[in-house]
Amino acid sequence: MSLLVVQHQTTCPPGRVGTWLRDAGVELDVRRPYAGEALPADLSGHDGLLVLGGQMGCRDDEVAPWLPAVRDLISTAAKGGTPALGICLGHQLAAVALGGEVGRNPGGRTIGVLTVGSTDQLADDAVLAAAAGAPVPQWNDDIVTRLPEGAVALADNERGDLLVARLAPTVWGVQGHPEADLDIVTAWAASDAGAPEVEGVDVPAALTAVEQAQPAIEAAWRPVTEAFAARLG
User: Fold this and answer.
1) Burial class (CB within 10 angstroms; exposed 0-12, middle 13-18, buried 19+) of 126
2) Comparing C-alpha atoms, which of 16, 27, 151, 19 is closest to residue 91?
3) pLDDT the model gives residue 192
4) pLDDT tens-digit readout, 92-136
5) CB 95 within 8 A of CB 167
6) How far apart are the first and last CA of the chain?
7) How far apart are CA 227 and CA 24, in angstroms?
8) Is 52 helix (H, G, I), strand (E, B) or coil?
9) What are residue 84's phi and psi, to 5 degrees?
């Protein structure tokens, strides 16, 4: 099984999700367009698509000129029934690629460990069901404000923000970062130090929460990743 992975920047690697996918027998074809690596024109050589996070917005094409190609790949996956998973920015890219909308969270930046709500829709989902009640790190300014037609909101976090969704029959989105371990999140904190978006945020407490949640994140999100991998076969 070959999975195309789009990585948007050095500090947003596949992380734990990549490890879990490899453990499930998936070969990762990681493309880094920010480093000059080309994206394929289609998904004919791959069994699925994983789009990771990044600091840019989902329509910041002038900052990240490869984003139109990523949105096209997501549309291709949806039309062709190819499994695709978007994480944070990837989730937002999938939403707009399929006709939804993304905007700034009026509640401000979300930082820390939040919880996936438990809903009937989530319990019935073939990929994300194991995430019900699970913790997940979040570090985002934008959120999906309108889902594409036919999409299913699966669960919010405790702030009332959409956290997981089935954006098309074979396309899933997660606003959180199940792939991000403590080292990854610590790098984000260092990058954001002094930024106005983190003013008033207890970043050390957020990092402590990420560290403490590691076992529970593994317990919930490894099965989610395995369920996604099973769709590739």
Assistant:
1) middle
2) 151
3) 82
4) 999 999 999 999 998 888 999 999 999 999 999 999 999 999 999
5) yes
6) 7
7) 10
8) coil
9) -140, 145
